[in-house]
Structure formats: C-alpha cells, structure tokens
Amino acid sequence: MSVSGFEDSALDVYEIDVIPDFGALQTLTDRPGERFVMVNMLVFKDMATGEGFEGLTGREAYGLYAAGLREAQMAIDSRLIWVGDVQGQVVGSSDPVFQSMALLEYASPTAFLGFATQPGDNPEARSAGLQGQWLVPSTTLAEGEAGSEPSGSAPEELPDIDTLVESTGLSEEQIGRVLDGPLDEPVFIVELLRFTDGDRSTYAQYEAGVAPVLEERGARLVWRGSYDGFVLGAGAPSFDEQTVTEYPNRAAYLLTLSDPRVAAVSPFRADGLLTHWIYTAGEAEIDLGF
C-alpha cells in the first residue's frame, strides 16, 4: 500500500514579533460579545536582557511577566484550555521553532482589548524574555472533554525504522523527531493546517478514517479551531486551522499513522492540505501565569 508522505514545507512569510499591532487588534471588535480563543505561540531569548533580569533565561523572565497578569486574567473571565512546551517540529520548516504554546479563551474581544492595554505588575519582563510570538485570534470548532486525559504508559514495541517509514509516510528524520523525547509519557501533537479547498471536504475524509483509530489508541482531541487572522507576528499564506491531540505516548502516535486504515486514507490528507506543520509538545515546565 502506498502511503502519502509528509512534506517539510515552509511559508512564504514567517515572522514573529514582540510589539502588538493595535490596528490589527481593532479588527476583533467585529464580534465584540463573542468568546474566542487567542492562540499564543512563543519564542524566548536564550538569556534575558535588560536591567534586573541578569542570570535569568528568556523563559524565566517571561514567566515573571505572565505571573503578574494572573489576577487580571481571572478578573475578565479568561479560561486556559491548554499550555505546553514544544519539544520539536516534526513536519514543516519554521525558523526559529516555537518553544511554548498556549490556548487562552477570552470572554470577548472587548475583554481582551481592555486586558491588552494593562501593563501588569512586571511589564519589562516581557521584552526582557521574549524574542517574538504569534498571537492568532481563533474560533473553537471542537474541544475535548475535561477529565479524559490519557495517562502515560509503557509504549508498545515499534517495528524497525524501514517499516515505519513505509507505513507512516514520515521520513526517517521525521520519525527521529517524534521519538526525541520521553517515550513513556503522554505527548501532544500540535498540527497547523492549510487546506486546498475552502470547505475542507477532502481533508475531512482523512479525519473520518483516522477517528476510530484515535479512539482505539487512547488519543483524545484537546482543541480544534479556525484561525481568524494574526494580531502579532505573520504567516503567509496563513493556516486555516490548528489542532491539539494528546496521545498516551509517542509510539501510540506512530502506530496510529501506520495503521492500515489510516494509511488507506492518507491520500485525502495529502490532497487536502497545501501546508501541514506538526509539533510535539509536553506539559509546560514553567507556569506562564495563564
């Protein structure tokens, strides 16, 4: 059976920024009363810069900034859906690679705009630690049920690398990226998707074929949402959707891709996507204050 491969594609434009574009923020006011999710995708400086942050990593400095916003987030009825530390980019090419991701739901664009104008308790820590980020307002399309998270488990034995390459569509290098991390802990697979057709009908046939295999492998959807536009950073052509799926371990993900039922529908994935980036992520090590 021929399995369609995964291409390490790059965007024509890929930029991370530190200073928000408040003109872009104003576009959120088109739906002032609706809850929405802000996708946060962060890249930190190796070491923080600026007076008072000597000896801190960029991630640690940004953590100070985020912790200073905790009460403000609670006051406007924000809700954390998910936060994770990126362990590697499996498919796609972004430089630099994002290091942390978070999905934060706001009560409304009005609430977010009010929050965005507040500097917090330690505003200097943001620029001290942050190299750049994407902020992408998004609409939730589906969300997994709370309390159904997979627990870590001993991974099943995988076939040899040549068999995995043939059965998954991943290259040997991409498989190495998947396996570069704790093997007996749950792993989040984060996917950024750009469709070839506006109604995603081709890719939907792939999703339908994968669904029963996900359930059998103990995976669960954390969140799926559609991108509404960038307010910080840039990606062009833009992605249409992002998904976060949790697997009991990395082997479960690879065995899902190599299942004959998934292999049979892999042409729908290849034909339905123009751009496909995949990341592995784990639990966040540092409290970012969300």
Helix content: 25-40%
- Give the strand line-up of the largest sheet: 2-4-3-10-6-9-7-5
Q: Outline the low-pLDDT stretches.
A: none
SSE order = EHEHHEEHHEHHEHEEEHHE
Number of strands: 10
Structural class from helices and strands?
Answer: alpha+beta
- Name the average pLDDT: 90
Number of separate domains: 2
Summarize the SSE layout with pairings.
Layout: E1 13-15, H1 22-25, E2 36-44, H2 58-67, H3 70-75, E3 79-91, E4 100-106, H4 109-116, H5 124-129, E5 130-143, H6 161-168, H7 172-178, E6 187-195, H8 201-216, E7 220-227, E8 234-236, E9 241-247, H9 250-258, H10 260-272, E10 273-283
Helix pairs in contact: 6-9, 8-10
Explain how this protein is built.
- The N and C termini lie far apart (45 Å).
- 30% of the residues lie in helices and 29% in strands.
- It has 290 residues and is α+β, with helices and mostly antiparallel strands.
- Strand 3 (79-91) and strand 4 form a beta hairpin.
Summarize the structure.
By secondary structure, the protein is an alpha+beta fold. It has helices at residues 22-25, 58-67, 70-75, 109-116, 124-129, 161-168, 172-178, 201-216, 250-258, 260-272; strands spanning 13-15, 36-44, 79-91, 100-106, 130-143, 187-195, 220-227, 234-236, 241-247, 273-283.
Keywords summarizing the entry:
290 residues, 30% helix, 10 strands, 10 helices, Alpha-Beta Plaits, eight-stranded antiparallel beta barrel, 2 domains, single chain, alpha+beta
